Amino acid sequence: MTKIAVLGAGKIGEALLSGLLSAGRSAADLLFTERYPQRAVELTETYGVQAADVATAAARSDVLVVAVKPQDIDPLLAELAPVLGDRMAQGGSEVLVVSLCAGLPTALFEARLPEKTAVVRVMPNTPMLVGEAMSVVSGGRYATEEQLDLVEELLGSVGRVRRAPETQQDAVTALSGSGPAYFFYLVEAMIDAGILVGIPRAMAAELIVQSAVGAATMLRGAEGHPVMLREAVTSPAGTTIAAIRELEKHGVRAALLDAIEAARDRSVELGRANDPSIEGDRTD
Ligand SMILES: NC(=O)C1=CN([C@@H]2O[C@H](COP(=O)(O)OP(=O)(O)OC[C@H]3O[C@@H](n4cnc5c(N)ncnc54)[C@H](O)[C@@H]3O)[C@@H](O)[C@H]2O)C=CC1
Ligand SMILES: O=C(O)[C@@H]1CCC=N1
């Protein structure tokens, strides 16, 4: 079985570990590194996966999944590069580096790690925790077809996967990487609206969450026809159109367009901030 180490077990790192375990992978085939010892103890207690240092993780794993914040990438790569160099010098098998980091191009990893290190960039999302991730995969310069297949297989066990050119990854990050947050935000606001119109919070939450689950299930079946589904809810002179008029008046559609464009731009900026060839543009 492929041995996988997650470097940086925060929210998305934990979601990946949890998702892979739920999908039937053995804890013995997984490792993680974590900067905060207390966090490492909690994760081992919860999942039975062992924590390791970077050197051990790199020596024992076939796939290294980088899941630190883009702002924390420098020290991690500085630690990883010599370890991978030693592994290569000792004739060890090739390691595959999979980055989940928003904005960071595969070229950044290739420049900082030993020559010809295979790198795959992935943008997943947190529904990985429940086996419903949307992940988009792009190969770096040295990633082979077999390595891309392997990454697709790993992520396919925790949700859906698509392949895309790396040039689309900043847009993908804005759409599906951050996407769950937009839905959570909407649900939060709709529950508040329930309070406003006199429904107790717990009941408002139940009504809205079940409506979200039902709507998502219908959307999946409709394969990209949200307009038809919305029209079916919108009766002439009814309640829904009264609400839609307010949404349009308040520019919700335009706000979403701007929001997703801003997220795309921020992803580009995170990549630039970590590009050593660009001076004076660090954005932390
Ligand atoms: N949270 C999300 O929904 C998504 C996050 N991502 C990407 O995943 C990456 C991680 O994001 P989160 O999990 O949200 O952040 P986080 O802050 O929850 O997790 C990062 C973890 O890495 C650890 N860490 C930092 N430097 C380390 C080092 N040198 N060695 C070992 N551990 C180290 C931190 O202690 C922390 O637990 C980011 O690059 C983000 O862009 C991608 C898709 C979705
Ligand atoms: O907010 C972020 O930067 C990360 C990347 C995609 C989702 N969360």
From TrEMBL:
Q: Where in the cell is it found?
A: Cytoplasm
Q: Where NADP(+) is bound, by residue?
A: 67-70
Q: What pathway does the annotation place this protein in?
A: Amino-acid biosynthesis; L-proline biosynthesis; L-proline from L-glutamate 5-semialdehyde: step 1/1
The residue ranges of the Pyrroline-5-carboxylate reductase catalytic N-terminal domain are 3-81
Q: Name any one GO molecular function.
A: pyrroline-5-carboxylate reductase activity
- The chain positions of domain Pyrroline-5-carboxylate reductase dimerisation read 166-270
PROSITE patterns to which the protein is assigned, alphabetical? P5CR
Question: Listed GO cellular component terms?
Answer: cytoplasm
**A Pfam family reported for this protein in Swiss-Prot or TrEMBL:** F420_oxidored
Give the record's keywords alphabetically.
Amino-acid biosynthesis, Cytoplasm, NADP, Oxidoreductase, Proline biosynthesis
The record's listing under InterPro entries reads: 6-PGluconate_DH-like_C_sf, NAD(P)-bd_dom_sf, P5C_Rdtase_cat_N, P5CR-like_CS, P5CR_dimer, Pyrroline-COOH_reductase
According to its UniProt entry, the protein's GO biological process terms are: L-proline biosynthetic process
Write down the chemical reaction(s) this protein catalyses.
Answer: L-proline + NADP(+) = (S)-1-pyrroline-5-carboxylate + NADPH + 2 H(+); L-proline + NAD(+) = (S)-1-pyrroline-5-carboxylate + NADH + 2 H(+)
Class of enzymatic activity (EC top level): oxidoreductase
Q: What is its EC number?
A: 1.5.1.2
Checking NCBIfam families in the record gives: proC (TIGR00112)
Q: What does this protein do?
A: Catalyzes the reduction of 1-pyrroline-5-carboxylate (PCA) to L-proline.
Q: Which family does it belong to?
A: Belongs to the pyrroline-5-carboxylate reductase family.
PANTHER family of this UniProt entry? PYRROLINE-5-CARBOXYLATE REDUCTASE, PYRROLINE-5-CARBOXYLATE REDUCTASE 3
What name is this protein filed under?
Pyrroline-5-carboxylate reductase
Biological source species? Actinoalloteichus hymeniacidonis
Quote the gene name from the UniProt entry.
Answer: proC
